[in-house]
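Supplementary Methods. Inverse-folding protocol.

Structures were first reduced to a discrete structure-token string of length 294. This string, shown here, constituted the complete conditioning input.
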């Protein structure tokens, strides 16, 4: 686990340094050329410095050991970071849309050749950072940073295309159209991150867990008669938990520990559920309660 966190921290540090340097250069050229595509991309890159910093801090917090106040540890710090980063990306998308509409109404002169050259560098810079972050994208926090940098690379590619079209045709409105396309794609993927982060914080069923399949797996375990009162949630990205009751025959009570271990092993191996709390019952609680009510 420590090695995994060190890898994540190293990836984010690399991204922070490289992104910060490029942001300064790109923003300066965006102002000089009057390109919305470059200014929008540089503004987004500036927020990347913030989001990468948030991701780095969250990973450091997540390393803390569980204690009596935080019995599950600090893993959800990374989920809060993903939520915060997604919120920032939504604001960036809104800014790009606003500026694009303004530019469509009042076109400005743009140096298409310079835009294409500077944006070409952005493809290499942002693409390199995205590639390094992609190695840990199973973690929602790292995935939010990965998506952010991937869209920066796509934004730079779009800016190159925009700059070339402007250079050869003089069609200045292309710059604003490219900005709107970037914003729309960013909105779509950011909303996906927000949805997953909220799902985890509300302790909803993880998107990669099939409840019916998990129920069948437990029920089909030898000597398990029934499973009920099941709950599945994610403590953090990639670390799923489950609690349930299993019903066994009273004669199997001496083997209850072995039965529970068999269920836990199956859950870990086949359904990526690392933490399971399983209570053994000798009768159907629902039926028992109905009899009592009568």
């Amino acid at each position: 686990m420590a090695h995994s966190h060190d890898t994540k921290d190293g990836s984010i540090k690399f991204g922070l340094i490289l992104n910060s340097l490029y942001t300064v250069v790109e923003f300066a050229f965006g102002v000089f050329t009057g390109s919305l595509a470059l200014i929008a991309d540089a503004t987004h890159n500036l927020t990347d410095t913030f989001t990468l910093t948030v991701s780095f801090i969250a990973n450091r917090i997540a390393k803390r050991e569980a204690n009596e106040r935080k019995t599950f540890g600090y893993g959800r710090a990374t989920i809060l970071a993903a939520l915060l980063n997604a919120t920032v990306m939504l604001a960036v998308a809104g800014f790009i849309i606003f500026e694009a509409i303004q530019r469509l109404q009042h076109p400005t002169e743009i140096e298409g050749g310079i835009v294409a050259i500077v944006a070409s560098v952005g493809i290499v810079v942002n693409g390199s950072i995205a590639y390094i972050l992609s190695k840990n994208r199973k973690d929602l926090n790292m995935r939010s940073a990965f998506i952010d940098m991937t869209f920066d690379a796509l934004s730079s590619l779009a800016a190159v295309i925009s700059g070339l079209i402007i250079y050869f045709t003089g069609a200045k409105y292309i710059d604003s159209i490219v900005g709107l396309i970037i914003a729309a794609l960013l909105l779509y993927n950011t909303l996906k991150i927000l949805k997953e982060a909220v799902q985890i914080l509300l302790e909803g069923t993880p998107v990669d867990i099939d409840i019916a399949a998990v129920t069948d797996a437990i029920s089909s375990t030898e000597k398990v008669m029934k499973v009920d009162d099941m709950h599945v949630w994610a403590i953090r990205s990639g670390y799923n938990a489950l609690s349930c009751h299993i019903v066994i025959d009273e004669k199997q009570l001496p083997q209850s520990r072995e039965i529970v271990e068999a269920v836990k092993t199956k859950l870990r191996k086949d359904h990526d559920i690392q933490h399971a709390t399983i209570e053994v019952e000798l009768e159907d609680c629902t039926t028992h309660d109905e009899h009592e009510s009568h």
